[in-house]
Amino acid sequence: MSGPELTSVDVPGLAHPITYDPALPISLWREEIARTIADHQVVVIAGETGSGKTTQIPKICLELGRRNIGHTQPRRIAARSVAERVAEELHSSLGDLIGYQVRFTRKASAETRVKIMTDGVLLAEIGHDRDLRRYDTIIIDEAHERSLNIDFLLGYLKVLLPRRPDLKIIITSATIDTDRFAAHFADADGTSAPIIEVSGRTYPVEVRYRPILADGEADQVGGICAAITELSAVGDGDILVFCSGEREIRDAADAITAMDLRRTEVLPLYARLSAAEQHRVFNTHTGRRIVLATNVAETSLTVPGIRYVVDPGTARISRYSARTKVQRLPIEPISQASANQRAGRCGRVAPGVCIRLYDEEDFAARPEFTEPEILRTNLASVILQMTAADLGAIATFPFVEAPDASQINDGLRLLAELGALSSGLGERPRLTGIGRRLAQIPVDPRMGRMLLAGERLGCLAEIMIIVAGMSIQDPRERPVEERDKAEALHRRFWAPMAGVDETTDADQGPAGEQADRKADPPAPDGSDFQAWLRLWDYLRSQQRALSGNAFRRMCRQEHLHFLRIREWQDLHAQLRDIARDLKLQRNTAPAPIERVHTAILTGLLSQVGLADVKEEPARGQRKPRGRAPLREYIGARGTRFAINPGSSLARTQPPLVMAGEIVETTRLWARTVGPVTAGQVEEVGAHVLKRTYAEPHWSTRQAAVLASETVSLFGVPIVAGRRVPYARVNPVEAREIFLRAALVEGQWTTRHHFFADNQQLRAEAAELEERTRRRDLVVDDQVIYDFYDARVPADITSGAHFDRWWKTTRHEQPELLTLTMDDLVVADPSGGGAAFPDHWTVRSPQGEEHDLEVSYRFSPGDPRDGVSVEIPLAVLNQLDETPFSWQVPGMRSELVTEMIRALPKAVRKTLVPAPEYAARALRWLADHPADGGTREALPQALARALRGLTGERVHPGDVDLERVPAHLRVTFVITGDRGEVAVGKDLAALAEELAPKVQQTLSRAAAEHTRAGATDWVFGTIEATVQLTRAGHRVVGYPALADEGTSVGLMVAENAERQRSSHRRGLRRLVQLQTPDPTKWVVSHLGNTDKLSLGTSPYAGVPALLADARLASVGELIRRAGGDQTRDEATFRRLCDTVRSDNADQMRSIVNVVAQTLTLRQRALSLVPRAAAVAPAAAEDVSEQLGNLVFAGFVAATGYEHLVDVPRYVSAAEQRLTALIAAPARDQRAAEVIGRSEDAYAAACDLAPAGPLPEDLDAIGWLLEELRVSLFAQNLRTKVPVSEKRVTTAIAEVRRRLGG
Questions:
Q1: Which residues does the annotated region (Disordered) include (predicted)?
Q2: What is the pLDDT, as a whole number, of residue 39?
Q3: Kind of pairing, strands 98-102 and 264-269?
Q4: pTM passes above 0.70
Q5: For residues 1063 and 628, what is the distance between their CA atoms, to the nearest angstrom?
Q6: Among 616, 772, 903, 1086, which residue's beta carbon has the most beta carbons within 10 A?
Q7: What are the structural domains, with CATH classification, of the chain?
Q8: How far apart are CA 1131 and CA 119, in angstroms?
């Protein structure tokens, strides 16, 4: 029985009539479609798959007389096959009436009236044909796919229509969201474009759900084979199987071929096949054909004769990951619409069956439509393509669905960062040379930028591996149950691997087994990116050495995800093809990792971080309790992140890093990290770096104006404080600074005669002002600046510039720059004389006279304002403040006046006017000197004078010296051999601060009073003090013994307190050297338990511990005998006899205490790990406490009166740990008390001067141990009453004494 006849239409200009197959549903709508196209500028035609819309609409347009028809397809394979089909139906050779054009192929001629092309080709034509004048009709096919190119075309055509009223636009789509297209092309009054819906499927399709386990590719391939078996039992007919990609097609083809099905042909169908191979699916055949296709067969192509469809429900869908900042092609579940499209490919020739390899609930939970590509694509890619096609500004472009404005700005910022745009956030950005090349690379812009840089830097081969790796999910798995083993295996790639390219010896076993036997992981050499390269090389060598199944087993054993590795290799192959198409040159020799990092950095500039390094405590300084703060990195635009603990850089933490991705979990973590340098950032990021300049200043050394340059990258200070010539930045300001600093202020080392003469003249004028404290004698610096400004040329900005100019000018105008006194002085000076002396003669308490230099400065607010007295360091400990309290005669009256004003109000109100009473008090004191000529400070003298004048009882302490202006108090300048050592107004505080330096100075001056290396008393009688001469001054020193370890020396201390401390330690050592060693006797009387305990000490060994115990025993016996300050040989011998008699018993007592302490310490330490598991902070606190109590040297360092308490303190720590394990919550409150108290104690310790802690502060440390006993082990009882309040009070008293 024959079917309906073909409809035939003659069209002028065509050699053959146009025929329409009535079997195609669209043929029934031909007349209505033609009528609608003729009456409207835009028509939307919706038709199910197989309706014939793709091949018949161009024929309808030809029938209407349209002469230049452009017809777009989303894929190259579809463009070519559609063109061939339409040409065949019109009895025309391909390239004549019907032509086609894809990316690298064009087959068309001047006679071509219908050109079928990819949408990218039409988009490219807009660049040189803005109004698309070569076309009178444009058909956008498969618009429902909503690719970027389709959205670009739809938006551009909307703008173009008003300029081309003759242009016809036909939008064809599956029956998916057609109203959106119609509304997009609505006319001025809001009327949507007409929609014609064409029904396609003519036979019912049965959908069967056959879910498979989601456990890798084997299940999917097995599911496909099971579905084919099931469909073979249904009946004859071809089967279409959808696969995600070429690799999946090959796997399925191998599995189906292995089924050995009779009279069955297996054909692949994907875009990269040759035209001849693609055509095979359209050829007639016998038997059954199974077509394995990507989603190109979903809507773009209609494969003839399909009765059955197998749908695994997945496809590769391009998607931008905001987390990794990478455009990826992950395999994802398809939408309901796509699933229905796939099912629609069967049932065209007879009732069909579609088997879905997932369940019905899964289908119902999927989104209705596939998200448009523009909403799942990095907008940087969109903007790049739009700019390349010159489509206008993205913010105003009429997209079918416009992206968010903030996303647009993010995209623009990224392109500016990559150097692709010449104006990052402008309305009409322009592509740079890099941008034009990036637009040709069909990968994420960041990745594309790395590829371009890789070619330029000669490391493209390495970059392609890394880019492919960064675009997939990490193939290195870390299962919870075997995390440690997996991480050990992965750490192999952190360092060079020996023998990677060699064939693996089968007898050695897989690396997964060897990992358990390897004790030490390789030391990382610091780059996660290099780890990717090593992993790649390792996998390639293993693939060459192993069979396919063996390689899979190796991956499983070494916790490497086989599927992700394949995806990585597939992406790398695609990148290789892209590089070949774009003629990017790959390097053949391995590139240095630094160059690889530089190339990667071009795409990761906004993911650079600078280590925020916290200041470490100085050596010997007490460390604060608690955990050290986590090191952070300062990231772009104010972010802060840390390196992921799983990174190879987690421990080394270089100062500057780049991160492949930054993820937020409990905080921001950087993953895939590599080190970079500031030089690399400046090399590739110059276009986005921000340079700021601060502190422009004159450099005397370089004779130029320099500034501190800060180079920042998105807020990250890449370079800070770099000194650069400021004249390049701001020559006008640099010249001004040069004139003011070098010429006016004299900060210049030069031999020019005018300069030296001017400086000397200005010093003479300034001296007049300083002595008399007047500021109306000499002109200010601005007058001097104007003098030089009027004479020095405008282009002189540095010493070198000036020297070149002055070399010739000085011969022509030698006096041009020479100042005169008339230029400087504007008023006559007055004052001076004996009231402002140059020297101050002071008698020390020891009766020595010292002649000290005096200088003056009139500079209110300056620390040196007023009178300064220069005191040599060697005599600092010989002077007190009493004579200096009287000031120089010229300022004494003003000082006394201000002291009266600083009295309490009740007193000072009776002493008005203050200047008059000051004068009277000074006259009275001249007539009434202190009784017996005693040394009297001015406050005491003033109090005595005011009582004598007024009868008012005034106490010296009533004068509030803080209210006296600073310039009236003498400034003390302490000088050493190399100049100033310290400056201040408190002479006593300076003496304490500089005590160590005074001691060194005295020792050098007292060489004849010092010696070293003595092991017996060879010092004669050691005097309490000695008279020395240093820098022309007679000074007093304090001789003392000094402990040198294995011998004793004699030194000269700067004060009596230091003398006592050093002498006590030195005497202890000397007595030890002169008394028998009781160590063997003590050891022989120790029990085995005690001996074992001694071996657990933190000392280098038991002998070192016993030696320390012997020293502690000698010290304690000296203290009991009251011999701490023995200074002659006879007394020393008697002291040795006393120690000798009791030393063995005392040392045995000390060793017993130490053994007990160590036993308790071991028990406590054994509990720490269990406590750390439930309360890490508390366990760490106890560990630190034990370390502070028991350390190498603790026996002799701890006085015996405290040493006997140490076992109790350690026992209290043990009890705390035991309670902590049982009930962690109960420890919290007491721990907070200890934390507060120790923080306050640490702050007080910071106020103490260098050296051993003062006795009162050291006592508080032991009081804290008693507080711990009271909080955690009350049953052990405390030695003294203690509480948090008592500790806080004691700390407060010490802070007041220390000035805190």
A1: 499-525
A2: 92
A3: unpaired
A4: no
A5: 39
A6: 903
A7: 7-198 (3.40.50.300), 205-373 (3.40.50.300), 378-440 (no CATH), 479-593 (no CATH), 604-616+623-680 (no CATH), 734-824 (no CATH), 874-990 (no CATH)
A8: 109
